[in-house]
TrEMBL record:
Protein name: non-specific serine/threonine protein kinase
Cross-referenced Pfam families: NAF, Pkinase
Domain Protein kinase: residue ranges: 23-277
GO molecular function: ATP binding; protein serine/threonine kinase activity
Lineage: Eukaryota, Viridiplantae, Streptophyta, Embryophyta, Tracheophyta
UniProt domain NAF: residue ranges: 298-322
InterPro entries referenced in this protein's UniProt entry, alphabetically: Kinase-like_dom_sf, NAF/FISL_domain, NAF_dom, Prot_kinase_dom, Protein_kinase_ATP_BS, Ser/Thr_kinase_AS
Length: 326
């Protein structure tokens, strides 16, 4: 049986621990409705990686084929030191495997849950986050699900943004220039999404960045309630209070990030020029390179599909979702 085929096991069986004779698969790092993420080691180099195993059957049933294709396309075009790197994509008849850079430091969320960050440390991670967001937006990519759980840390405690499964490309924008898909996690959702109208993907990401900055500094959410409708009302009206230890400059920036009016909400360029943000800020350098996609059937067929992909909606990875046995 191919590696990582078990539906409910927390770790692969001894017979399943080598994926495509290339990666030794270890412990389960996390899981969701459609995928599991494992720690693994590349056999040839002994380098640590994370492998995201996605069930083809589940994404077909869930109608999420486009999301997986989108995530591959998006992660291929993004090369930034604070974004988890997609090294390669492998596939067999049952699963798709994303081979990802391993973020040794784990989830940022787990650190914040233990104790809120100092304003200095909050600023450091917020600067890295805004660097990523600005970079993505300049390339027509909007994350739409930014939250501490999707923010990881490397061995040097630098930020690594992951999980682009809900991301939207500019070719999804309708003629009115707005996005129309309901995405995101409730406590981080911008008020214009709750209004179920078209929204600007860049403005939505800025709102989520504001929520994240608030959580880093405060240790709790600005808009929260056990009753979902009450929480939505708080978000829609912008009802929140900053902790007493928050500096005036940070309080002012938070009010601009969590502006319920997307038209007047602060932009990435304005954030970068903000006096609180600018303290110790250094712009990062980034580069592009290319990925290879491999499809492993019984004959270990290899196809360099990424070589012919373009950055439009015209690419075709439908072969990855073919249920027929080879």
């Amino acid at each position: 049986m191919p590696a990582l085929e078990g539906a409910g096991d927390e770790s692969p069986s001894p017979a399943e621990k080598t994926l495509f004779k290339k990666y030794e698969v270890g412990r389960l790092l996390g899981y969701g409705a459609f995928a599991k993420v494992y720690h693994a080691r590349e056999v040839q180099t002994a380098q640590n990686v994370a492998i995201k195993a996605i069930s083809k059957q589940r994404i077909l049933k869930g109608g999420l084929t486009a999301n997986v294709k989108r995530e591959i396309s998006i992660m291929r075009r993004l090369r930034h030191p604070n974004i988890v790197r997609l090294r390669e994509v492998l596939a067999n008849t049952k699963k798709i495997y994303f081979v990802l850079e391993f973020a040794k430091g784990g989830e940022l969320f787990s650190k914040v849950a233990k104790s809120r960050f100092s304003e200095h440390l909050s600023r450091r991670y917020f600067q890295q986050l805004i660097s990523v967001v600005g970079y993505c937006h300049s390339r027509g990519v909007y994350h739409r699900d930014l939250k501490p759980e999707n923010l990881l840390l490397d061995e040097n405690w630098n930020l690594k943004v992951t999980d682009f499964g809900l991301s939207a490309l500019t070719d999804q924008i309708r003629h009115d220039g707005l996005l129309h898909t309901l995405c995101g996690t409730p406590a981080y959702v911008a008020p214009e999404i709750l209004a179920k109208k078209g929204y600007d993907g860049a403005k939505v990401d800025i709102w989520s960045c504001g929520i994240i900055l608030f959580v880093l500094n405060a240790g709790y959410l600005p808009f929260n309630d056990p009753n979902l409708m009450i929480m939505y009302r708080k978000i829609y009206t912008g009802e929140f209070r900053v902790p007493k230890w928050t500096s005036p400059d940070l309080k002012r920036l938070l009010s601009r990030l969590l502006d319920t009016n997307p038209q007047t909400r602060i932009t990435v360029d304005e954030i970068i020029n903000d006096s609180w943000f600018k303290i110790g800020y250094k712009e990062v350098e980034f580069h592009h390179d290319y990925l290879e996609l491999k499809d492993d059937g019984d004959n270990l067929k290899v196809m360099n599909a990424f070589d012919i992909l373009t950055f439009s909606s015209g690419y075709n990875l439908s072969g990855l979702f073919d249920d027929r046995e080879e």
